[in-house]
Amino acid sequence: MPQTTQRCDYLLSQLDVLEAESIHIFREVAAEFERPVLLFSGGKDSIVMLRLAQKAFWPAPIPFPVMHVDTGHNFPEVIEFRDRMVADVGVRLVVASVQESIDSGRVVEQKGRRASRNRLQTTTLLDAIEEHQFDAAFGGARRDEEKARAKERVVSFRDEFGQWDPKNQRPELWNLFNTKIVQGEHVRVFPLSNWTELDIWDYVRREELALPPIYFAHTRRVFERDGLLLDAETGFANRGEDEPEFEATVRYRTVGDASCTGAVKSAAESLEEVMEEIAATRVTERGQTRADDRTSEAAMEDRKKEGYF
Fold first, then answer.
1. Angle (CA) 216 219 221, round 5°
2. Is the same domain home to 143 and 40?
3. Same domain (yes/no): 220, 137
4. pLDDT grade, residue 295 (50/70/90)?
5. Same domain, 182 and 267
6. What's the N-to-C CA distance of the chain in angstroms?
7. What is the DSSP letter of 112?
8. What whole-number distance in Å separates Cα of residue 91 and Cα of residue 86?
9. What is the percent of the chain with per-residue pLDDT over 70, rounded to a whole number?
10. Distance between CA 259 and CA 232 in Å, rounded?
11. Which residue of 66, 161, 189, 202 pairs with 38 in a disulfide if CB–CB is 3.0 to 4.6 A?
12. Which is more confident, 149 or 26?
């Protein structure tokens, strides 16, 4: 009697495929490097990375610390959320302080209306990597965010000066990563490279992840500068007398230094409403909300070459 072969199809959802790829990256890097660290700001991308790291090593604890490069000009809601989440997960937090870099003379704080500490993070980050001898730093960059980020490999080489050279990128065939470095060099690793902003929010919904409240619509005092709605409550954005503040219903698509991170007008109070809003927009989150990346098309690439991203 002839035998029949039964075919079984195992279909994975888009999120399942992305999750599996990211978990593989976390495990590969943890196996190949001696001192990895996860860059954690308390924003949505780093929150998703933290959940992926938990899944990658469960039931064991995450085998590396998380690090926040703290400009000192953060949204209070995000710092409060960061500390609470790190305590809940039970992972060690390393805080690299830009203020300490300023006080020690390592960097000079900018002056003027558009002054920001965002660019000063480069020195603080590289000093912390050297101090703790981290050889791999997980970052939350995604290729859909900006042109310079789209040039990155998943495992992105940084030389002994912490600099990124797009012409010196190592080839990545399929999921084979070049992890060989010498002393003094390190790599940045981007497990979310192939994710989109909408994927991030869909994963937050599926995993029921908590987020800082500023990601959802709320009333805030803001002022307009160069087409952006900047925060007027913390005072970090150096509002001028010719820049009147007003109340608006806004939310943030990304969180960062309050001096240069803009809000967007929005009535989206739930995950579903935020996802509908993102699906309809044609402007990337950084292009819409980051003043320092809008100064020129090459702004982000310049900062990457200096060593921060």
1. 125
2. yes
3. no
4. very low
5. no
6. 64
7. S
8. 6
9. 89
10. 9
11. 66
12. 26
Do residues 161 and 257 both lie within one domain? no
- Cβ(27)–Cβ(56) below 8 Å: yes
Does 168 map to a domain?
A: yes
Question: Please, are residues 45 and 196 in contact by the beta-carbon 8 Å criterion?
Answer: no
| Cβ pair 140, 88 in contact under 8 A | no
186 and 238 housed in the same domain: no
Q: Dihedrals φ, ψ of 249, to 5°? A: -90, 110
User: What pLDDT band is residue 51 in, cutting at 50, 70 and 90?
Assistant: very high
CB-based contact 245:239 (threshold 8 Å): yes
Q: 102-111, pLDDT tens digit by residue?
A: 999 999 998 8
Phi, psi of 142 (to 5 degrees): -125, 145
pTM: 0.87
Task: Classify residue 136: in a domain, yes or no.
Answer: yes
Could you list the residue range(s) of the whole structural domain that residue 237 is in?
212-280
How big is the chain, counted in residues? 309
